[in-house]
Amino acid sequence: MKNKILINNLVKAAMLTALSIILSRIFGIQLTQDIKISFGTLPLMLSGVLFGPLLGALSGLAADLIGIMINLGGAYHPGFTLGSVLTGMVPGLIFMYGKRKNISNKVLILLVIIFVYGINHGLLTPLWLTQLYGTPYKVLLAGRAIKVIPDAIINYILLLLIYERLIPKMK
Fold this sequence. Notes:
two-stranded antiparallel ribbon
């Protein structure tokens, strides 16, 4: 019975991975060399939250590596792969710890958003872009803040709605 549940979770995580690839690689909008708008991180965060840090990390890894093969136009940097892995893994860790301590869903989702958008997209992504293109880090930080803050607010609302309203109906 345990294997059946594991396979079921693997299939669901794979579907979220595919959704991430579609939302980021096909429906993502590249505004500048440094700024892209997409909702590809939402399925990865959801994968970590629902299935734990291991499946979340694997979803992030698969989404990035498959996405690179699909979208050959951009430059590869392992930092982006690490960021994608962390986008799936850290929400799983936050929810594992938070559920043990009976922390509310709203607070847990806020912590997920702070990590993914504040640390990962806000601080690490400009570092990878600096290494790739040579643009000064401080310049990229300022430009990213304009993108990251609205992204964080929108994704907080979406993740909260999906987690509290849609997921219970699907079980």
